[in-house]
Amino acid sequence: MITTTFRLAKGAGACSESYRLFAQYVGGIANYGKDTPIPLAEVATVLSLDDALWCLHCAENQPEANKLTQLLAADFAERVLPIFEKAYPDDQRPRKAIEASRLFAEGKIGAAARAAAGAAAWAAAWAAARAAARAAARAAAGAAARAAAWDAAWDAARAAAWAAERKWQLERLKEVLSA
């Protein structure tokens, strides 16, 4: 179980609002104790995804927390991998980088191999972003009038997709922390 404490969180510069809310939840720091372990699964349940992910960096069992962070990042990236692969079906660099990240977290490859895979994935992502930007610029030149009509609908769709992804990430984090 990955835990932190109020002392560790405070020392790492915890957000005062989240710190206060969690202290209220446990009945006050004086009652709970500054050095009593706080399970990160509980932080994720009481506070937010961002707060729980932040707490990973001030966890008591840092090697386990680092491994979990790397595996979660791979999970989160893998969730959106189909979007990239639909646009670039022959480009395996991001998939290989995710695999390398998992292998590194498990201690099966070294940092140099992981860094090389990561660099390849970033190159692929930047190439895709440049291509998308060029396509968007070409499309925008002829679609300015149509774009105004679609903006509200796309904004709502993006917000809904963002909220759904954040919800999935929070549930995945709770699942992993509770295991």
Structure commentary:
By secondary structure, the chain is mainly α. The protein has two domains: 3-60, no CATH class; 63-142, no CATH class. The protein has eight helices and two strands; from the N terminus they run βαααβααααα. The protein has helices at 6-11, 16-25, 29-32, 40-46, 49-55, 62-87, 93-105, 111-178; strands at 3-4, 38-39. Strands 1-2 form a two-stranded antiparallel ribbon. Helix 4 packs across helix 8 and helix 6 (62-87) packs across helix 8 (111-178).
Query: Order of helices and strands, N to C?
Result: EHHHEHHHHH
- DSSP summary: helix tally: 8
Strand order of the largest sheet: 1-2
Helix content: over 70%
Mean pLDDT comes to: 82
Bin the strand percentage.
under 5%
Q: Class by helix and strand content?
A: mainly alpha
Largest sheet: 2 strands, antiparallel
What does the radius of gyration come to?
A: 20 Å
Low-confidence stretches: none
Our measurement of the CA-to-CA distance between the termini, rounded to an integer number of angstroms, reads 8 Å
Briefly characterize the structure.
This protein has 179 residues and is an all-alpha fold. The chain is built from eight helices and two strands; from the N terminus they run βαααβααααα.
Using brief descriptors, characterize the structure shown.
mainly alpha; 179 residues; two-stranded antiparallel sheet
